Amino acid sequence: MAKGKHTVQLPVTKRKHVDKVSGLNIEASGARRDKEKPLSIPRILRTLRVALSALAIAALASPIAQQTISPVWGAVTASVNHAQAITATVLLGYVWRAYYGTHTWSILPYLALLAFWTPAIQQYLFQYSSKLGPVAGPVLLGFASCHTIVIGCGYAAAQAIEVLDLQTQLGNVAGVALPAVLLDFGYFRPLEYVLARLGLPWIQSATDLLSPTRLQPLMAVALTVLSPERPWWLFSLGAPALLHMLLANPHFDGPYNMAIANRDLAPTNWTLLDRTWSNTGYISVLEDKNLNYRVLRCDHSLLGGEWQLTTDRRNSGWLVNEPIYAVFQMLEAVRLVEVEKKPADSAAQALVVGLGIGTAPKSLMAHGIYTTTVELDPAVYGFAKQYFGMPSDVASGQVVLVDAISWVDAAVDSGDRKYDYILHDVFTGGAEPLSLFTHSFLSHLRALLTPDGVIAINYAGDLAMPLTARALNTIDQVFDGQCRAFRDAAPSSSTNPMSADGFVNVVVFCRNSPGGVRFRQPSRKDFLGSKSRETYLLPKVEWEVQFPPRSDGNLTFNTSRQDVLKKGDERLWSVQVEESAIKHWRVMRNVLPAKVWELW
Q1: Contact at 8 Å (CB) between 488 and 545?
Q2: Which of 97, 439, 473, 478 has CA atoms 20 to 30 A from the CA of 35?
């Protein structure tokens, strides 16, 4: 018997796999197998190039799908369970190939074809958004435009890696589980997180060339280039998808597509004036030609709007454009709060967190108050100037395009400036950003107030939800109970004005110095020629809500005065944020026609 170690190669699967990178049949080439071991460096590098590239495309597909779904369903509702789903679908695709794939042809050409047609699939499904609703809709669209691509990329990664014979080297279970977990949690998820949170928002705020709708066909091209096989049918079936995107899809950022959108919007009497992608999502300006009002849209929410000063309205006594929402004029009532030492407007300083269309900052500047506005999205500022008359005169104020938390933290640390008035009005993705309602952030805002300063905080939500009670409790705690709160509209319940009746805007007025919140009567000068200010500037006593919210006979909150929103607790409230976003989605569907949301 010959001496030495004897090994017997046991078949791991029944399939013959082909190294598509090198084009070599592994089992049919013994000479090549002897020359290049399965775990040789060249083979590992070639394999990783394909596997990592496929997963990189999957990591890009995830935020792109989220961004293109958000205009129809909102960023929050579109993101429900998304992180968990993409993690599972990568593993599903990998395990599917490792244990059940028997073919030798590459899946990548078919995946590329699906990616080419994804914009058309989305366009078709969007028209059923009202029937699908805010729960089933994002799930269906997420599967059609994201998870199918991610599963396929996970499958392609496993198909590339199988030439390394890891199941032979490590065993049937470890040979699949180890690379799957490493690729998913060690590569795909971190890369997806960086692209979604940092990469794409930064790129899209800097240039329009890489918008989500333009990245969709580029992703399909990348899959085509990565594929070792490029059958003729891929080009013949993919070309019509590109033509449809360029000539018939209202969502694409091409030279003709905005005209397509306006053609399809014509029956609703709405016109799309402008649109862009930015770091907070899809931003657009629309105008109702029938009722003559204009709105600024971010994904599936409105940042504000104005009734236009038409000839008929001018003849009826209008002098200026009027806001469509009373809440923005109610915020201006910070000037009406009575304090001991109130500065003249010309000597006052104001800070506005959140620009919108600029209603409140414009009014403060019109009164001669130097106003600093902190806004995250440069596109919002650009459209506010171009379509809503936001002044850019540095003598009357400044707009700082930066994250509010970092700016406020830096302002507190520097201690250079105090503000007589602060307006806090932020809303995004169909829900309030809880990080801007934490105890630490609101405490920093209070630190920026002068001793006799006043703050107005707009909170949009459902008064029946514990999250709303917690947020309002936090405001109450930070400002030592020196606050009052008002709705922006009359409650629907005529018997109990304090009862919760759905999604509303609540404006909370707080003073920095001890004492109650009382408003002086406004004068003609305070109205700035606006008829709606005459009605809504002074908060109405009959619209006042219990502050902070407590048991009022209809509701009982399990919330004490010590329960506040703390930094780092935002994730604990994700379920209620999602519920609030769903309610807001339904509110928005009653504000604008479904077709306006669906056509972007």
Answers
A1: no
A2: 97
Tokens of 29: 């080439």
Kindly list the distances between the CA atom of residue 107 and the CA atoms of 22, 25, 72, 104, 372, in Å, as whole numbers in the listed order: 17, 17, 31, 9, 54
Cα 304 to Cα 120, 322, 323, 328, distances in angstroms? 31, 11, 8, 8
Q: List, in order, residues 6 or more apart from 218 with CB less than 8 Å away.
A: none
Q: Which of these ranges, 157-166, 355-364, 428-437, has the smallest mean pLDDT?
A: 428-437
pLDDT at 35: 52
**The pLDDT value given to residue 550:** 61
Neighbouring CB atoms inside 10 A of 416's CB total 7
The answer to whether the pTM exceeds 0.90 is: no
Task: Report DSSP letters for 197-259, one per residue.
Answer: IIIHHHHHHH-STT-HHHHHHHHHHHHHHH-S---HHHHHHHHHHHHHHHHT-TTS-STTHHH
Q: How far is CA 569 from CA 76, 77, 444, 463, 573, in A?
A: 17, 20, 18, 20, 7
In residues, how long is the chain? 600
Torsions phi, psi for 155 (to 5 deg): -65, -45
Write out the two tokens for 214.
Answer: 């333009």
Q: What is the per-residue pLDDT for 115?
A: 96
Q: Which of 462, 471, 463 is nearest to 438 (CA)?
A: 471
178-205 confidence digits (pLDDT tens): 999 999 999 999 999 999 988 888 888 7
pLDDT at 135 over 70: yes
Mean of all residue pLDDT scores within the chain: 87
Tell which residue, 443, 437, 438, 481, has the closest CA to residue 459.
437
Residue 498 predicted with pLDDT over 70? no
Instruction: Tally the C-alpha atoms within 13 A of residue 144's C-alpha that lie toward its C-beta.
Output: 19
Cβ-based burial of 65 (10 A; exposed 0-12, middle 13-18, buried ≥19): buried
pLDDT at 501 exceeding the cut of 90 = no
Q: Are 488 and 454 in contact (CB under 8 A)?
A: no
Q: What is the DSSP string of 365-386?
A: HHTT-EEEEEES-HHHHHHHHH
Q: Does residue 469 contact residue 559 with C-beta atoms inside 8 Å? A: yes
Task: Outline where 503-573 has alpha helix (H).
Answer: 524-527, 531-536
Pick the residue with more confidence: 563 or 113? 113
- Alpha-carbon separation of residue 265 from 271, 286, 342, 555, 596 (angstroms): 7, 10, 50, 43, 7
In angstroms, the first-to-last Cα distance of the chain is: 78
Question: Which H or E element spans position 451?
Answer: strand 449-462
| Whether pLDDT at 415 is above 90 | no
pLDDT tens sequence across 264-288: 999 999 999 999 999 889 999 999 9
Type of residue numbered 475: I
